[in-house]
Amino acid sequence: MNMSQTALKSAPGAQATPHFDVERIRADFPILKLKPGGKPLVYLDNAASSQMPQQVIDRLVRYQTSQHSNIHRAVHTLSEIATAEYEEARRKLARFINAREEREVIFTSGTTDAINLAMHGYGRKFIGAGDEIILTTLEHHANIVPWQMLAEEKGVKIRVVPIDDAGEVSIGDYEKLFNEHTKLVGVAHVSNALGSVVPVKQMIAFAHARGVPVLVDGAQAAPHMKLDMQDLDCDFYAFSGHKLCGPTGIGILYAKAALLERMQPFKGGGDMILSVSFEKTTYNVIPQKFEAGTPPIAAAIGLGAAVDYLSAIGLDAIAAHEHALLDYATEQLLRMPGVHIIGTAREKAAVLSFKLDGVHPHDIGTLLNQDGVAVRTGHHCAQPVMQRYGVPATSRASFAFYNTMAEVDALVAGIRNVQKVFC
Predict the structure, then answer these.
(1) Is residue 265 predicted with pLDDT exceeding 80?
(2) Which range of residues forms the domain containing residue 153?
(3) Predicted local confidence at residue 184, as pLDDT
(4) pLDDT over 70 (residue 18)
(5) Residue 2 has pLDDT above 70, yes or no
(6) CATH number of domain containing 382
(7) Domain boundary among 312, 345, 376
(8) Number of continuous H segments (helices) and E segments (strands) in the chain
């Protein structure tokens, strides 16, 4: 029996989160019972995609087996049921993020699609030559490339807030970038590469005092913390379902209704219209105005079930358990010679990026996989972050509420095995 297998049996020195029954929660996730290569699965790639509980799987099966139909317009029973369930999912998402109105929730295929919707619908209409957009070094490519496309098309300038060695955004540096040409801020709530939690509320308030709207990429925040759009007061907020125990191919763009009313549609087709003639098309009301064609009905209903599941556990309880995992993992890795944590912000979500002296991240990932430990390796679609630290890639362990202290020990034991092979 190797070190990773023994580590799964006990977690010396680790303290479980009080009153958080992780073993009961793990029983909801069928995939966690897998043993790839004969080793217990230690799934630490949650920042890329989380796993799905049986409750969500069952909800998807129920829809597909007894409720499936295309939505809107039809008067037959199945269509009416499917429409009602789809719109109920929208209401669930609105409650989940405390939107003022349910029509402020636009279903998309995910965070990337949502940001592109905002770029095409708002950016191309209201941002033009000589205007400026502020981003941060921490951004995922999904919150960089669409704005670069706009910049190339319209002659817009992109200005970038730097990060310090810890992976934190300086508010002072951020404020210095504002001028009369600033027309939009795009910022990640949580860095997918480092786990840094960005002070978005403070950034939003500063931008709003100057009449500048703010888009927040919440892909890495939504699974880990309670969201409140009224408290945050951002203008746009985007996240994906598959990172918070829901299906792939679904996400949302939240936007204030007043902005959505002014925006142009991103996609044209069925259901986003009120009337069509070859002379003129009249667009539908929001949110349908931005949901052309047959939407991801089953995925939206599955996402509604996922937020029900997470809400029943409690986002505060989830955050507490994940922070305990992160603290314990950070403590263990800091004790290991030759291991360097990339990103040491004072406030972090459950992401731990690291490098090993003399070992390429892909080799780390390959050998950890042999011990059943699944981590992500590469630039994490955040190449400016890698450039900031002078590394081509990192290994990234990302935790979810169903992970355990014993699994952290398995990660540590696996890293030691990697060092034995290469050092």
Answers:
(1) yes
(2) 56-312
(3) 98
(4) no
(5) no
(6) 3.90.1150.10
(7) 312
(8) 16, 15
Distance in angstroms (rounded) separating the CA atoms of residues 219 and 224: 10
Q: How many residues does the structure list for the chain?
A: 423
Other Cβ atoms closer than 10 A to 196 = 28
**Shared-domain flag, residues 253 and 370:** no
Say whether 381 is catalytic.
Answer: yes
Instruction: Report the alpha-carbon distance of residue 299 to residue 85 in Å, rounded.
Output: 11
Co-location of 303 and 349 in the same domain: no
Q: What is the mean pLDDT of the chain?
A: 94
Look at residues 312, 345, 369 and tell me which one is the last residue of a structural domain. 312
Give the residue from 166, 239, 178 showing the smallest Cα distance to 203.
178
List the one residue out of 50, 133, 15, 108 whose CA is nearest residue 309: 50
Joined tokens for residue 195? 């786990």
- The answer to whether residues 114 and 93 belong to one domain is yes
Q: Is 308 exposed, middle or buried (0-12, 13-18, 19+ CB in 10 A)?
A: middle
| pLDDT tens for each residue of 330-353 | 999 999 999 999 999 999 999 999
What is the C-alpha separation between 88 and 249, in angstroms, rounded? Answer: 18
Q: For residues 1-6, give the mean pLDDT.
A: 34
Which of 17-31, 130-144, 165-179, 360-374 bottoms out in mean pLDDT, i.e. has the lowest? 17-31
> Helix 297-313 crosses helix 54-66 at what angle (to 10 degrees)?
150
247 in Cβ contact with 295 (< 8 Å): no
Beta bridge partners of 396: 353, 376
Is 340:354 a contact under the CB 8 Å cutoff?
Answer: yes
pLDDT digits (tens, 9 = 90+) for 64-105: 999 999 999 889 999 999 999 999 999 999 999 999 999 999
Is residue 283 predicted with pLDDT exceeding 50? yes
* Secondary structure (DSSP) of 49-109: -----HHHHHHHHHHHHHT----SS--SHHHHHHHHHHHHHHHHHHHHHT-S-GGGEEEES
Mean pLDDT, rounded, for 304-322: 97
Written as six digits, the tokens of 166 are: 């810890």
Domain identity same for 168 and 135: yes
The values of phi and psi at residue 158, to 5°, are -105, 130
Q: How many structural domains are present in the chain?
A: 2
My answer on whether 297 and 377 are in the same domain is no
The one-letter code for the residue type at 77 is T
In a domain, 51, yes or no: no
